[in-house]
Each structure stands twice: as structure tokens, then as C-alpha cells.
Amino acid sequence: MDSEGITKPAQAIFTAGTGPGVQAADGSSVELYRLIRPIGEPEIVRDVLKSGAKILELGCGVGRITHPLVALGFDVVAVDNCTEMLAFVNGAATVKADIETLNLHRTFDAVLLMSHLINTPDSAKRQAYLSTCRRHLGLDGVAIIQRNDPQWFDNATEGFLGSRVGVDTFLDRVVRREQFVEMTIRYASGHAVWTHSFVADRLSEDDLMRSLQSTGLEHKRWLDDRRTWFVAQASALCE
């Protein structure tokens, strides 16, 4: 293992994507994400915030969640580091930037870190993501964060995962190495096939709480029974 705690092969797999169209740096395929629809994420955000809240969305992609949030009346600034992804975002201000170095010199009512970005196997990058959340939180602002279900990482097996809006999803490869999980997921829609290979940190609740604390954030409450969505705020000790 290297100094960041993952093998060199795992690091390479983390960035792999194949299929029609452009792949972003993390292996996500632009054309695939144009097909995928929300599965309740906008409603989770809506139920936390007041109408018209100012939102900073980190890792917005093609606007899969951005567009419903705008339709719900939120004022959204959408951030992504892929030009081709941002080209499909409408109705929100867009910023091309890496999450870990972003500094807009302004604050928001809410910062969104979704799509399991917090499960990155790079602990330094995770801390940078959370620090970006913290420095963009306004007074009484909240970070709404989504992590992957550790039990799913423990129990997932190769095979068909499900179908949604004409996209069939398969788990082609899963390898568990201590707290890290290497996966290859395949998506098929008509004759088009994409794959996304990545490494994720299982991220226990204890590890999560330590990461939050070290970046001046404090866990406030879970938003779902599986404990995959939660709200954090600036720690009182850092005020």
C-alpha cells in the first residue's frame, strides 16, 4: 500500500471509465449521466431547507439534481471540474473548479456534497472536500452530505443490480481490501454500454465523525433510516 492507504492498482482503477462520449476525470460518463434521473435527492434537500435558500452544489455533473432544485425555487451555484458536464446545466450559475480547492469568497445557506463523494479512498481529498463545505457555510448554514451504505459495500455481489429509466445496471467486479472496496459497474441502455471502475472507502461512522471534527464540522442528524444522508454544521468550537 502507498502512503494514502490504498494500493497503486486501486488508485488507477478509481479513475477508469469507458463507453460512448466523454468521461470526466473520475470516470463518470457524460452521456450516461444525461440519461439517469433523480431518485429522491431533490426532495431530501427540499425538506431540510427554507424556500429560496442559496445552495452551493459540489460535483453537479450534468445537472441531474441541479435542475429539480432550481425548479423547486432554490438559488443554486453548481460546481464541477468537467466542462462537458457543465455544458448541460441550465438555470443555475456554474463554476468550473476542483471541489478541494474551491473558494468563492462567499457563503451559502446550504452546501451539498452528494453522489458519495465523501467515500473517496483518498483521505486527504476527503478532508479537503469537507473543508470546502465548511468555508462556504453561512451563519446557521448546513452541509447536506450523502455517503454510501457500508452494509451495501459488505454485501454487494456481482450480477444485475436493477433497471431505471431504461438504464440497466450490473456489478461486474467487486474486490474488498480492508476498508476499501474496488468495483466495476456496467450500465446499458439500448446498444450503448458504459463502465465505471472505482475504489471507495467503506467509511465507518467513527471515521466519518473524526473527519467532520477535524474540518470544523459537527454531525447534527441523519436524514434516512440507512444513515446515508446527514446534516452537518460548523462546530461551535470553531466559531
Describe the secondary structure blueprint for this structure.
Elements: H1 8-14, E1 16-18, H2 30-35, H3 41-48, E2 54-58, H4 66-71, E3 75-80, H5 83-86, E4 93-96, E5 108-113, H6 123-135, E6 137-146, H7 150-155, E7 159-164, E8 167-177, E9 180-189, E10 192-201, H8 205-214, E11 217-222, E12 229-234
Parallel strand pairs: 2-3, 2-5, 3-4, 5-6
Antiparallel strand pairs: 1-10, 6-12, 7-8, 8-9, 9-10, 11-12
Characterization of this structure:
With 239 residues, this protein is of the alpha/beta class. The protein has two domains: 1-26 and 150-202, no CATH class; 37-147 and 204-238, Vaccinia Virus protein VP39 (Rossmann fold). The protein has helices at 8-14, 30-35, 41-48, 66-71, 83-86, 123-135, 150-155, 205-214; strands spanning 16-18, 54-58, 75-80, 93-96, 108-113, 137-146, 159-164, 167-177, 180-189, 192-201, 217-222, 229-234. Strands 4-3-2-5-6-12-11 form a seven-stranded mixed sheet. Strands 1-10-9-8-7 form a five-stranded antiparallel sheet. A hairpin with a 2-residue loop joins strand 7 and strand 8 (167-177). The radius of gyration is 17 Å and the shape is globular.
